[in-house]
Amino acid sequence: MSITSKAAIAKGDGTFVIDSVIVAEPKADEVLVKIMAAGLCHTDHDSLHWGKPIVMGHEGSGIVEAIGTNVSNVTVGDSVILNWATPCRTCFQCIRGNEHICEKNSPVVAGGNGYTEGHAHLEGTIYRRQPIERSFNIGTLSEYTLVKASAVVKNTASAMSFEAASIISCGVMTGYGSVVNSAKVKQNSSVVVLGTGGVGLSVIQGAKVSEAGKIIAIDINANRLTLAKKFGATHTILADKNDKGLLQAAQEVKKLTENRGADYAFECTAVPELGAAPLAMVRNAGTAVQVSGIEQEITVDMNLFEWDKVYINPLYGGCNPEKDFPNIITHFQSGKLKLEEMITRTYSLDQLEQAFGDMLSGKNAKGVIVF
């Protein structure tokens, strides 16, 4: 039996509506999830401009409402965390352990931003009864969503709120995974984090879990730097917004690292002009990591690569959901990783416009829609 679900729908022209969609019963390999909370990030706002109607949202947590006949990883009533990089586990990349860049299902690698099966627009005058895509295959800004079984991981942490669980889906995983999976930060190493929003705070926490010796946070917002210390930063640098390429801040980093530069630097600002900035922060043979997903064309001074520096651009922190989500849950349960504290404010779905405004103005470390 299908379900009518209230949802936030991007119209593709920069605007959105709160409307309704019909969600079908799950097929053999599908799971119907009642969404309890959905985290917000800049990608959700970007989806307003994708040129087509789409159920918004790609971070979420909820409760399994129904399952298909072939589903074995979850049962009805389970608390789950959604995962937008749904692996097929049979393609070239999946069998090599790169499930986050699945060649068949990844909305980033394989093309498209969500399949349409099982969802239809109900009340809209233009899209009435027409199939509608879900953002990044999951569309979490909806009371219910229908996803592949590989898009959900059971949450075994009973003490974790749905709000905290929802932000694991992308922001936390991207930051944590970039440290643990992609850069493989070593114990007692030095780490620089450029930008201390939700992803940056997750990088800081990943560095703390990895037992880095020095964690240097850089931001132009003094309040965010205060927050960074609470999440594990050992040093902070208040940057000047007129510091081109953060080269002056890089000199401060060198003073804190024996005039050598850090072992690792992570860019988490999403500012295209700072795409090469982590290269200025690291020592010779150090590793610079572009975390925030900058896709614009930028100019890079090749002198920044001297000498033997490595620059990587990981997707989704190299996420393997069945391995990484349980590890994050374990770190949360042991107190090594803060999730509840990252949530600045919660909103209802009808307050989405305000939630976007607070996010874009930098008021929130993380805002979450609750259902």
Give an account of the 3D structure:
This protein has 371 residues and is an alpha/beta fold. The chain has 2 domains: 3-169 and 339-370, Medium-chain alcohol dehydrogenases, catalytic domain (Quinone Oxidoreductase, Chain A, domain 1, Alpha-Beta Complex), CATH 3.90.180.10; 175-315, 3-Layer(aba) Sandwich (Rossmann fold). Helix content is 22%, strand content 25%. The chain is built from 9 helices and 18 strands. Strands 3, 5, 6, 9, 10, 17 and 18 form a 7-stranded mixed β-sheet that branches. Strand 14 (262-267), helix 7 (277-281) and strand 15 (282-290) form a beta-alpha-beta unit. The radius of gyration is 20 Å and the shape is globular. The two termini are 22 Å apart.
Task: Tell me the layout of helices and strands.
Blueprint: E1 3-10, E2 16-23, E3 30-39, H1 42-46, E4 54-55, E5 61-67, E6 79-82, E7 119-121, E8 133-134, E9 144-148, E10 152-154, H2 162-166, H3 171-183, E11 190-194, H4 198-209, E12 214-219, H5 222-230, E13 235-238, H6 247-256, E14 262-267, H7 277-281, E15 282-290, E16 310-312, H8 321-334, E17 345-347, H9 352-360, E18 367-370
Parallel strand pairs: 4-8, 11-12, 11-14, 12-13, 14-15, 15-16, 17-18
Antiparallel strand pairs: 1-2, 1-4, 2-7, 3-5, 3-9, 3-18, 5-6, 6-10
Helix pairs in contact: 3-4
Under the CATH scheme, which class of the largest domain?
Alpha Beta
How many structural domains?
2
Query: From the 3D coordinates, which CATH architecture of the largest domain would you assign?
Result: Alpha-Beta Complex
Q: Describe the biggest sheet? A: 7 strands, mixed
Q: Specify the helix fraction band.
A: 10-25%
Roughly what fraction of the amino acids lie in strands?
Answer: 15-25%
Dominant shape:
globular
Q: Could you state the order of secondary-structure elements as H and E?
A: EEEHEEEEEEEHHEHEHEHEHEEHEHE
| Mean pLDDT value | 93
**CATH-defined fold name of the largest domain:** Quinone Oxidoreductase, Chain A, domain 1
